[in-house]
Amino acid sequence: MTRRPVDSGDPDRLYTVTGGRTRSYEQSFDLVTLIVKESEPSPGMQSEHVRILRLCARPVAVVELASLLDLPIGVVKILLCDLLDSGRITARHPQSSGRGAQLPLPETLKRVLVGLQNL
Amino acid sequence: MASRTSDPVVAGPSPSARPLRDTASDGLKIVIVGGFGAGKTTMVGSVSEIRPLSTEEVMTQASVGIDDPSGVRTKSTTTVAFDFGRISLDDEMVLYLFGAPGQERFWFLWDRLFSGTLGAVVLVDTRRLADSWYAIDRLEHYGLPFVVARNNFDAPEHSLDQVREALSLNPDVPLLDCDARQRESSRDVLIALVRHLHSLSSEETHS
């Protein structure tokens, strides 16, 4: 039988994937935090962890992982916490937008503008 | 869920065919808000370096049923789906574009999903102007800067001034025309937003 993606409509299944943990972990990751793997999967690892490591040879954003894994974002964040705690991934957090209620700096926006103009 | 998009004309490489650079380290967000059929996915797809992907977030809300005389606590689950694409701006910066439905339940998840967003594009379909009112009201509530883009599938019936009036838009908010199917046109909307942000940020920095 081929392995089907987790049915995101079934809360019990999601409960199993995350080992019953819920929201307290997820503050560590933004939607656009970039994830890079630091080690190869090892035998006996949970299949979702293995899939994440295989996807993250190059940087991949949390939201892209959620889409590729077909899992809700909150669930992916919990799985990423496990991998971060065990040093199997590193997380590159957003730098330019983390100024709370303030606007990004003009220099930052200038860089964004140049990038868009080069499209 | 992963590969579905509501718009069959939108194509592009898969994310694995177009991986990010090894040096990518700084993710940025812009949200494109609009009603059903306003062209959000089309706009995301026309400028994205990958085909638009879709994902969802589930929120469980504990609530007391107001219609329930016994006052029994119930749990309700809200699922919000949205599309996204990306643009590598330079060696470090990657801009993610999110196409988000403007409906009410979506805004419950705003803080969790979209805090730290640079700004927003409100994509307006003039046949359904009312769809945009709520989005504009919410963006003002959150204090997030935005521009309004009218997506012209056909020749427009109204002037932009008429649209501005119909939406009760503040004169400081940029309003422009676009064709979301065209890459250059969608890019120009993003440029208009970033210019607007730049002028606001310069004022803030120098005041």
Q: Number of folding domains of chain A?
A: 1
Tell me the CATH architecture of chain B: 3-Layer(aba) Sandwich
CATH topology of chain B: Rossmann fold
Our Rg estimate of chain A from Cα atoms comes to 17 Å
Largest interface: A-B, 46 and 53 residues
Level-1 CATH class name of chain A: Mainly Alpha
Low-confidence stretches of chain A: 1-5
Task: Explain this structure.
The complex is a heterodimer of chains A (119) and B (207). Chain A has helices at 11-17, 47-55, 62-69, 73-85, 106-117; strands at residues 34-37, 60-61, 89-92. The termini of chain A are far apart. Helix content of chain A is 41%, strand content 8%. A 3-stranded antiparallel β-sheet of chain A has the order 2-1-3. Chain A has 119 residues and is mainly alpha-helical. Chain A has one domain: Orthogonal Bundle (Arc Repressor Mutant, subunit A), CATH 1.10.10. Chain B is α/β, with parallel strands linked by helices and 207 residues long. Chain B has one domain (26-206): 3-Layer(aba) Sandwich (Rossmann fold), CATH 3.40.50.300. Chain B has 5 helices and 7 strands; from the N terminus they run βαβββαβαβαβα. Chain B has helices spanning 40-47, 110-114, 130-142, 160-166, 183-206, and strands at 26-34, 53-64, 73-88, 93-101, 119-124, 146-151, 175-178. Chain B has a 7-stranded mixed β-sheet, with helices on both faces. In chain B, helix 1 crosses helix 5. Chains A and B meet through strand 2, helix 3 and helix 5 of A and strand 1, strand 2, strand 3, strand 4 and helix 5 of B.
In short:
The complex is a heterodimer of chains A (119) and B (207). By secondary structure, chain A is mainly alpha-helical.
Topology:
The complex is a heterodimer of chains A (119) and B (207).
Chain A: H1 11-17, E1 34-37, H2 47-55, E2 60-61, H3 62-69, H4 73-85, E3 89-92, H5 106-117
Antiparallel strand pairs in A: 1-2, 1-3
Helix pairs in contact in A: 3-4
Chain B: E1 26-34, H1 40-47, E2 53-64, E3 73-88, E4 93-101, H2 110-114, E5 119-124, H3 130-142, E6 146-151, H4 160-166, E7 175-178, H5 183-206
Parallel strand pairs in B: 1-4, 1-5, 5-6, 6-7
Antiparallel strand pairs in B: 2-3, 3-4
Helix pairs in contact in B: 1-5
